[in-house]
């Protein structure tokens, strides 16, 4: 895969072997002192693995299933990325600022890699920026807070979203009437989220995300990399995947 050099996209920075967007790498320092609250929920995912989906489900749960309450802000403000930082973008995602006004069930998700050793298991460390190098996201994030492992479950979730919503409800110790869960299934479908400005990132200024090149929410299809990559890229991916996953007992399906 050729790297497209774009001056607005400085080269990735490696943090503990993980390639990160330069600005995200810079944001990691202050995060070392992040203290999770017992009711924080950290969503730990790989890129393109359903982060937005799980975020919307969680916020809907915390809003009692009321979609209109989820219209209060775009998803990246309601469920901020801990490590997000970019020049010129107001930090709707700055955790400390957000916390001042946060409800007791503010969700703090995403891309917190707590891989490996126990030292790294005590605080946010790195954002995974390429498909699955290294260990899988853990299902625990330290002594406080909770984590939801979203990524590897994407395929089964797509097949039975209601069951997955029920699992998330159980995980956060909530319950909602069945008809509310049914409504949530509808509102969090890919089709609905793709046209919802509060989930589809269309509120992000064009200079940061140009939807005419690609909408943030594209197809909602598992395994679409196969059609996106060239034959050579697919081959290279398969070799790399086999190498990195050697010895891993988990088996993943990439197609429904
Ligand atoms: P595409 O938009 O490329 O199809 P992330 O939020 O981690 O970036 O993951 C995005 C991917 O999650 C989407 O990729 C899609 O495959 C899947 N996805 C997102 N929202 C979804 C939804 N509501 N229902 C089903 N799949 C969804």
TrEMBL record:
Residues 115-144 are annotated as: Disordered. It comes from Nomascus leucogenys. The gene is LOC100579706. PANTHER family: SULFOTRANSFERASE SULT (PTHR11783). It holds the Pfam family Sulfotransfer_1. It is an enzyme of class 2 (transferase). GO terms for molecular function: sulfotransferase activity. SUPFAM superfamilies: P-loop containing nucleoside triphosphate hydrolases. Its EC number is 2.8.2.-. Residues 38-86, 158-248 form the Sulfotransferase domain. Belongs to the sulfotransferase 1 family. It comes from the Eukaryota. This is Sulfotransferase. InterPro entries: P-loop_NTPase, Sulfotransferase_dom. Transmembrane segments: none annotated. Keywords: Transferase.
């Amino acid at each position: 895969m050729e790297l497209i050099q774009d001056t607005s996209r400085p080269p990735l920075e490696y943090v503990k072997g993980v390639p990160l967007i330069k600005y995200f790498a810079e944001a990691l320092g202050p995060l070392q002192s992040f203290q999770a609250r017992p009711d924080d929920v950290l969503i730990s995912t790989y890129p393109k693995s359903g982060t937005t989906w799980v975020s919307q489900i969680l916020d809907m749960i915390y809003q009692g299933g009321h979609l209109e309450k989820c219209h209060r802000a775009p998803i990246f403000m309601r469920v901020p990325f801990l490590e997000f930082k970019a020049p010129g973008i107001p930090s709707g995602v700055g955790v400390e600022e957000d916390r001042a006004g946060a409800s007791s069930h503010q969700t703090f998700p995403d891309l917190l890699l707590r891989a490996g050793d126990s030292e790294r298991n005590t605080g946010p460390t790195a954002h995974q920026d390429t498909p699955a190098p290294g260990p899988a996201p853990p299902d625990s994030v330290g002594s406080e807070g909770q984590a939801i492992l979203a990524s590897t479950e994407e395929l089964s979730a797509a097949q039975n979203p209601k069951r997955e919503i029920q699992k998330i409800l159980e995980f956060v110790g909530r319950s909602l009437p069945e008809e509310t869960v049914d409504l949530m299934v509808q509102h969090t479908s890919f089709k609905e989220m793709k046209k919802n400005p509060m989930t589809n990132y269309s509120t992000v200024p064009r200079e940061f995300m140009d939807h005419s090149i690609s909408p943030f929410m594209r197809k909602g299809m598992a395994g679409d990399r196969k059609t996106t990559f060239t034959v050579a890229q697919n081959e290279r991916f398969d070799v790399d995947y086999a190498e990195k996953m050697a010895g891993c007992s988990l088996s993943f399906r990439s197609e429904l």
